[in-house]
Amino acid sequence: MNRPPVYELDAVYKKQSDSFSLEISRLVIASGETLGLVGPTGAGKSTLLRLLSGLEMPSSGAISLWGHRHEGNNIESLRRVAMVHQRPLMLSESVRYNIEYGLHVRRVKSAQQRSDPMLERLGLSRLVNQDARTLSGGQLQLLAIGRALVVEPEVLLLDEPTAHLDPANVALVEDVIGEQKQRLGMTIVWATHNLFQARRTASKIALLLSGRLIEITDRETFFDSPSDERTKDFVQGKMVY
To answer: How many CB atoms lie under 10 A from the CB of residue 62?
Structure first.
């Protein structure tokens, strides 16, 4: 039996400033899929992720999460969603405290049993007692990814999670997220500037330009035979914005 969509967006409008707004006439994100969000800086990827996370509400229109209106104050639903931000914030505590923070909020009793394997997998075990705010940019990004994954979310929202990582750690993060997705069946929305990464990780890809959803289709169609000329130009590296 087909599972209902995780997200449904209808006539969503979000005014961010006098010069930018996001408009999504219709978007459905299926359970278990990985949706890659691509587009230039300022296209609206982060704004869309913040709407999906409940951190911001649309100016108009409706967002549903598991069939219920997404008001941003349904704590039980939001416990099932985790997000990794472009510039993650850490508490003035140890690496261990930060990676286990979400587990403690969710009252998971076996926090260390979950966090230790994740710290080891991400190469952070030797830093467990270090103040998280003293980490390098790349280490902070790895910690933020681990903090999101360790709570075993049903939905994972990723805003350029590998932007500050070297190629080896990019590969590591993609592998770890892939492993967790296979194990948990997570639904993932992954914003990235890297078209190669989108091709590696996403089952479906959406192009945003100037706050508008230009095209959303399966990975093969997006890269090989898109229906919109702007998508074709974007994939080919032409200036379309």
So the answer is: 12
Residue at token pair 């690496």: 95
Q: Is the pTM of this model over 0.90?
A: yes
In the chain, the number of structural domains is 1
Full domain range(s) for residue 229: 7-235
Q: Is the separation of the CB atoms in 114 and 108 below 8 Å?
A: yes
Q: CA 9 to CA 26: how far, in whole Å?
A: 5
**pLDDT tens digit string along 140-176?**
999 999 999 999 999 999 999 999 899 999 999 999 9
Does residue 1 lie in a domain region? no
- pLDDT tens for each residue of 31-78: 999 999 999 999 999 999 999 999 899 999 999 998 888 866 666 667
CB contact at 8 A, 26 and 216: no
Which positions ≥6 away from 79 have C-beta within 8 Å?
Answer: 105, 106
Residue 195, in any domain of the structure: yes
Question: Is 194 within 8 Å of 45 (Cβ atoms)?
Answer: no
Q: Which amino acid is at 138?
A: G
Domain of 202: which CATH number?
A: 3.40.50.300
The pair of three-digit structure tokens given for residue 63, joined into one six-digit string: 């967002």
The helix-helix angle for 137-150 and 167-184 (nearest 10°) equals 0
User: Does 121 fall in a domain?
Assistant: yes
CB atoms under 10 Å from CB of 80, counted, come to: 17
